[in-house]
């Protein structure tokens, strides 16, 4: 006799439960298939202490070793640091646009990523305050060139890699052109510079996107300190001007156009023709007091395409308006500058620019300022113990430059892995001076 089976009737309660299960499954599947959300400013969602560098191409953490050449280690380094007679003091070179040469050197000396063993180093840092030394009369162009060549000829590891793992800082608009023979000797080395273009005055730019790193300018320490700053930002409603440009004209078209525009619209644009000296030269505090008094801070090019004013704007909390077509910006792999600044064609400086800025609602200005406030730590030269700083950002960028294997046109290797020169002399037996190109 066949076993009788019973079926449970499908009630309205079962129907509702099944429908709920299908709905939950559908939305859960959709949620899991969505890409992870990213910060609208940085394009990332992780970074130690609130912001994290992306893992694409960088690794999950900082993990490298940097060797810093000592000033007494190689004949010639002291000359690059303090001049021919040693009269230039490092502390005098901390301020101004060339201060990054000193700051990066000092931060590396104290960094947890520093190594005292060349054999285990991923990268090598050559200290030099040569921009400051030149400005103070400690060296002339010919002496700078001779000093660099002398130093490089004493570095076996520079020869081993062809300079590819050696780091130089050139902190001004002149960039690596301070070293007249840069194209012969360090054309493969890593150059840290705020300047991404110099072809306006020279046939060849010293900046190369595949190996060099754009760094932030050196904003005055009084504005970047975590404590009481030299000048605090003003509420947007209390700012007198729509926009300002506070700088010397230097005969540059864009700057002259802004000065003329300010004469036409003095209630909207503050742009006095400042001088190098005399009563029209603004002191440090007065400069920032003026800078904070506008919603937008205009940053036209000067002698070169980069401008410190772009970075200063974030600390007085005005929206920077970049008026320099060729300018390069740091950390573009992680910072979406369209969310925190404006770039306007330098060929369209005029009433059209003011009309455009005036059309932007205060709400949008406040939002851009708020986003900029979150990442201006990337313009501050602080130790790598800080989770967010210019130095930390530079270290992440440097990590992408590290190599497991090093070679140059003058290095060769044998079946047992030993590295030799053209005369088949093993690397550990190489002795200075090294032949250079």
TrEMBL record:
On whether Glycosyltransferase is a keyword of this UniProt record, the answer is yes
Ranges annotated as spanning the membrane: none
Where in this chain does the record put each Exostosin GT47 domain?
64-349
Q: Which UniProt keywords apply?
A: Glycosyltransferase, Golgi apparatus, Signal-anchor, Transferase, Transmembrane
Q: What GO molecular functions are on record for this protein?
A: glycosyltransferase activity
Q: Key word Glycosyltransferase present in the record?
A: yes
**Membrane topology term:** Single-pass type II membrane protein
Protein's cellular compartments: Golgi apparatus membrane
A Pfam family recorded for this sequence = Exostosin_GT47
A single Gene Ontology CC annotation of this entry is: Golgi membrane
Q: Which family does it belong to?
A: Belongs to the glycosyltransferase 47 family.
Q: What is this protein called?
A: Exostosin family protein
């Amino acid at each position: 006799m066949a076993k009788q089976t019973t079926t449970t009737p499908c009630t309205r309660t079962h129907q509702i439960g099944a429908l709920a299960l299908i709905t939950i499954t559908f939305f859960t599947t959709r949620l899991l298939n969505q890409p992870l959300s990213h910060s609208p400013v940085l394009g990332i969602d992780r970074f130690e202490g609130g912001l994290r560098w992306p893992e694409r191409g960088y690794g999950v953490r900082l993990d490298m070793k940097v060797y810093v050449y000592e000033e007494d280690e190689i004949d010639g380094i002291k000359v690059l640091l303090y001049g021919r007679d040693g009269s230039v003091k490092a502390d005098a070179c901390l301020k101004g646009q060339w201060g990054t040469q000193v700051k990066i050197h000092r931060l590396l000396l104290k960094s947890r990523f520093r190594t005292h063993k060349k054999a285990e180093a991923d990268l090598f840092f050559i200290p030099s305050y040569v921009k400051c030394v030149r400005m103070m009369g400690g060296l002339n162009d010919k002496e700078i060139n001779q000093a660099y060549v002398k130093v490089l000829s004493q570095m076996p590891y520079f020869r081993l890699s062809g300079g590819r793992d050696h780091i130089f800082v050139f902190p001004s608009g002149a960039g690596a052109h301070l070293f007249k023979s840069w194209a012969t000797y360090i054309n493969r080395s890593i150059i840290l510079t705020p300047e991404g273009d110099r072809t306006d005055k020279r046939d060849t730019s010293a900046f190369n996107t595949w190996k060099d790193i754009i760094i932030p300018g050196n904003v005055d320490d009084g504005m970047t300190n975590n404590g009481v700053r030299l000048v605090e930002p003003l509420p947007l409603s209390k700012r007198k001007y729509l926009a300002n440009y506070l700088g010397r004209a230097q005969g540059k078209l864009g700057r002259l156009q802004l000065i003329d525009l300010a004469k036409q619209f003095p209630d909207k644009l503050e742009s006095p023709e400042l001088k190098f000296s005399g009563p029209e030269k603004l002191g440090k505090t007065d400069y920032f007091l003026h800078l904070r008094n506008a919603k937008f801070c205009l940053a036209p090019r000067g002698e070169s395409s980069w401008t410190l004013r772009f970075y200063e704007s974030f600390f007085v909390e005005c929206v920077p308006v970049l008026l320099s077509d060729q300018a390069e910006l740091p950390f573009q792999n992680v910072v979406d500058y369209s969310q925190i600044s404006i770039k306007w064609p330098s060929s369209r400086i005029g009433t059209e620019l003011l009309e455009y800025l005036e059309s932007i609602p205060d709400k949008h200005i406040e939002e851009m300022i708020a986003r900029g406030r979150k990442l201006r730590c990337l313009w501050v030269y602080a130790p790598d113990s800080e989770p967010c700083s210019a130095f930390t950002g530079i270290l992440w960028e440097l990590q992408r430059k590290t190599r497991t294997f090093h070679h140059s046109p003058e290095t060769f290797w044998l079946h047992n892995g030993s590295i030799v020169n053209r005369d088949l002399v093993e690397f550990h037996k190489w002795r200075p001076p090294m032949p250079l190109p």
